[in-house]
Amino acid sequence: MKTHKLYAIEGKKYQFTRLYGLIALFIAFQGMIALVPLVKLDPSGFSNSMIWHRIMDGQGIISVIISPIFLATLTSYGVDLEHRHNMWRVIQSSGLSYVQVYKVKLLFLLNHVALYVLGSCLLTYALARLKGVTASLPLVDTLYHVGTVLVVSFALGLVHYCLALRYKNQMVTLAVALVGSLSGMMSVFISELLMKLNPYSWYAYTVRMNSDPSLLETLKPMESYPIIASLVLIALAYLIGKRTPIGE
Amino acid sequence: MSLLHIEWMKLKRSKIWLPILILPFFSIAYGSINYSANREILQSQWISLWTQVYLFYGSFFYPCLIALICAFIWHSEHKQGGVKLLLTSGTPLYKILFAKMLVASLVAFLAQAYFMLGFFIAGQFFHFSMPFPKVFIPWLLAITLFSSLYVAVQSYLSLKLKSFAIPVAMGLGLGFICFLAVAQGVAPETHYMFAAARLSLLMNNSFESLSLTSFEWIKMIGYTLLGIGLFTGLQYKALKGQTQ
Hints:
By secondary structure, chain A is mainly alpha-helical. Chain A has 10 helices and no strands. The two termini of chain A are about 25 Å apart. In chain B, about 80% of the residues lie in helices and about 0% in strands.
């Protein structure tokens, strides 16, 4: 069967499910949290472009906590149907190759990860404008922020997709996400090395405002590390996922 | 065999104990490392250590852990028509619900006790000159009791939604909303409605001057009981709906 047909079947399966409700909930949630830095801020600062960095920094930190749980939930939801009704056996006996189904499901899930990331960024932008932020958006910095969050989310999404496929008990992927986001958050505060080693903390590379009072209003340089490391992780997880025994 | 015992037996040999053991351990380990790196700034010994180990865990991950426990309890029923089997057993519905909520609360209590033990052990490595503030124990116990509201909410979500993952994700959302509502002081009543989140925040920010009036306690207990009643009622309605 052709890939686009399989993709259409996948889409139909989730047409009237809670999948889109879940994505909308998390997008709304991210948007709501992004407004928190604006609540107690003097509106006179709304015309300074640093306000956008403040918002993006907040989003970066919040992503460390929220995104792993979202990604684990999304990927778990995406394979739970097959696990519950033993559909993997049906798929195998129908002559479809596992790798093809694996790829289509992955594409479907990553498209929804992108929907979540872009949706939450757009909502945050719209809410900030509504709140009265008049400063122009720093385009290159925004692209770096969105790109990094997107690539890190793809990498973690793929890791959780593999876990959700591997273990029928969906508690495993969710427990890993919980521990991952907690350790990711703590790694940010502990050391640069730990942050580099823990993929769950890579979102924090998008935090670029200096916390040192003497360096306020200056930005840390953009780092290519989270993007490169995520791409490596994506390649590794993809190869491992292709050979993953399902639903044990 | 009592219902409570049956529910306990179902969990006894399950994998639910793994996140319960790992999550508090990670929180204490990371918090202690962070504390040891910042000892010059954090000078209130046990109290400073607490601020490093409990804030993220208590605010976001503990509610999520409760969600995980409740989802696990109900998911095993959703699989292979277990809920229908429960309904045909002839046991009153409220007894089934209370047994499940009580076991979830008991597991949450054990997780908190384990956290406190881990915190006590971690503190021994720092050789504090002040003795261990035993007052931490009743405050954490109060948080645990108030978090019964989370148990009721999550139990309802896990009963209604057959997916394992979605109630857990909503648990994170619930933890966040409660935390933000209390931290930002959205409305005065939110301080009492989300008592567990409020106490967690107070223990973190102003432990040395932490005290509440009787009126505040009564309001917090009242809101928690009201919430538990409401969500137990919703669970009862949802379960009864499945019998028809």
